[in-house]
Amino acid sequence: MTPRRPAIKSIPLHSDNPDPGRNKAKDQVNAVDLLYQSPVGNQRMRHKTKIVLPILAVLCLGLLSQVSLPGYTRIELTEEAGGEKLLTVVAPDGEPVTLTWRNSQFGYDVTEVFYTRDGLIVQDQVTFSEPGGPLPPRVSAADVADLYHTGGTFDARGLSRPFSRIVYRIGEIGDPKLRVKNQTAALKKEAGFGGRVILTTARPKLSDFLLDPVQRVRCSLPGA
Predict the structure, then answer these.
(1) Cα dihedral sign for 144, 112, 161, 136?
(2) Which of 46, 119, 172, 178 is buried most, with the most CB atoms less than 10 Å from its CB?
(3) What would the mean pLDDT of 153-167 be, rounded to a whole number?
(4) Rounded average pLDDT over 30-58
């Protein structure tokens, strides 16, 4: 009788019974893949970050630049004919703005004093004085409108008249000069006789400080 050979039991290679040699080789391949793939992935991530971060910064800056800032007033003088800016300045609230001109009808020197407030300029004082003459009499704010047309010297204060837009016609007022923050803009020299200059005010935006931090004045007369 031929002796029976012992049966060879086949053991399936499940996860509970891994093949040590095969898994070891697979781990070595994975390690090589990680060695080469990780730097590439990091470089891609850094590249995307370099692109995304500037875009986010620009978007945030764009949104912030449109925010109106309280406590300041932006003043602009524009020549109507050519649309050129004669003066651009951002002033804190309470900053005085002085307009001087010659009343050609009566020959008086006129001084109008404003102050900035919450995106506006507020007329506070008007004085009609005779050159070389005595001090003008003090009058009430209610009388100013009539005195503008009837003539006579006067000094009115406490008017509290807010403006966001004023049109100056050079043919109606003689040699007007606007002074704000130690700068004087000569309107007649820039617009000419018969020209028109438009003053506008508004609350400044953050971009006014970031993009135009220094006031612009054309036709400036320092110390005038």
Answers:
(1) negative
(2) 178
(3) 96
(4) 57
Write the pLDDT tens digit of every residue in 59-73.
665 555 556 778 999
* Spatial distance between the Cα atoms of 149 and 56, rounded to a whole number of angstroms: 59
For the residues of the chain, what is the DSSP string, one character each?
Answer: -PPPPPPPPP----TTS--HHHHHHHHHHHHHHHHHHHHHHHHHHHHHHHHHHHHHHHHHHHHHHTPBPTTEEEEEEEETTT--EEEEEEEETT-EEEEEEEETTTTEEEEEEEEEETTEEEEEEEEEE-TTSPPPPEE-GGGHHHHHHH---EEEEEEEEEESEEEEETTTSEEEEEEETTEEEEHHHHH-TT-EEEEEEEPPBHHHHHH--S-EESSB-TT-
pLDDT at 164: 97
